[in-house]
Amino acid sequence: MDEREHIMNEEINEMDELRAVLKKLLRSNPEITFAIITSLEGLPILSILPDDFNEFILSATVATMFSLSERAVMEMKIDEFKDLLIRGNKGYIFVCNAELAVLSVSTTKYAKIGMIFHECERAARKIADILKKSG
User: Fold this and answer.
1) pTM strictly above 0.85
2) How far apart are CA 21 and CA 131, in angstroms?
3) Tens digits of per-residue pLDDT, 53-81?
4) pLDDT at 11 over 90
5) Which class for 95: exposed (0-12), middle (13-18), buried (19 or more C-beta within 10 A)?
6) What are the residues whose beta carbons fall under 8 Å from the beta carbon of 98, sequence distance 6 or more?
7) Do 128 and 99 meet the contact criterion of CB atoms below 8 Å apart?
8) What is 3-134's CATH topology?
């Protein structure tokens, strides 16, 4: 196997690992309706979304919310940004720091927020570990 094939196989394995994390997150809580991993720059890395969602617009929006929240936490001198919870009439959006990326999920209005926080933080740690491995 040449160097190029080796790199491609590593990227495929990384995407498979990330996909497994998102699938486990969605299976673990039926109130989670979608999940997306976004780069800090706002580009989609991987998502499990309904067909009528635009992955690129959602990624850019998530990264912007993350950046603004990070800045607000810094300006208010409350240490490091951890995560963001947005409540709408029909559900919640949760944005979580995954170090080299951002994890965002949407839930129904019936979601148990404590469980969502716990499950997303665990998934974000796994995502960070996977992305760190690939360097």
Assistant:
1) yes
2) 12
3) 999 999 999 999 999 999 999 999 998 88
4) no
5) buried
6) 37, 123, 124, 125, 127, 128, 131
7) yes
8) Beta-Lactamase (3.30.450)
